[in-house]
Fold these 2 entries.
Entry 1:
Amino acid sequence: MACFQPGHGVTKLDSNVWLPYCCLRTNTSAGDFATLAHEIVHATGDARHIIGGAQRTNLMSEVTGQRADIYKAHIDRLAKAYFAK
Ligand SMILES: [Zn+2]
């Protein structure tokens, strides 16, 4: 399963060859400069997004341009990720 953020970034989770990895477009910006951090959380194996207008400032929101908050659960996933060891 892959997560696509149209126009900004993508994280590939289902490769049979590579560990999860992120790609970012360098010629566009989400405005909040949070796309890399968003994709890195996906690379922990979590393809989900935070849905809902009240959560639009969450890093894992699908809404771009306003992401500034992160859940402790996502921080914990980052700390345990393969790339953090
Ligand atoms: Zn995403």
Note: The mean pLDDT is 86.
Entry 2:
Amino acid sequence: MHELSIAQSIVETAQASALASNAVSVTAVHVSLGELSGALEEALQFCYALATADTILGGSRLVIERKPVIIFCHHCLALRTLPGIQNFRCPDCQEPSRDIRQGCELEISSIIIEVEGELDGPAGVGTAAECAH
Ligand SMILES: [Zn+2]
């Protein structure tokens, strides 16, 4: 399952970061999820709960921030946000473009940790997975 390996990778990165910050527990992990990352949000939430069960991240929330696809249109010479991932054409001039500038990412943006009873964070930031595109 694709999402399980992604979840495990998020957990490893977040755990290392939390331990480095002397966290006693982790409240939430915020991730940026590009529309092209291929990960399904519901499956990722499910796998995250499994992967965190016996770790310092147990019971923490996975907060997913979706990132739309942004291409660079070589006709308009501008960045364009695509309404979906079916059609890689500039929404303004309909020129096709494969120059993808955003939408593949799956990164931890911040980690909310608890240090000796106090809320702290955001802690370190790391890349959890590489996009195949
Ligand atoms: Zn254009």
Note: Helices lie at 2-20, 41-52.
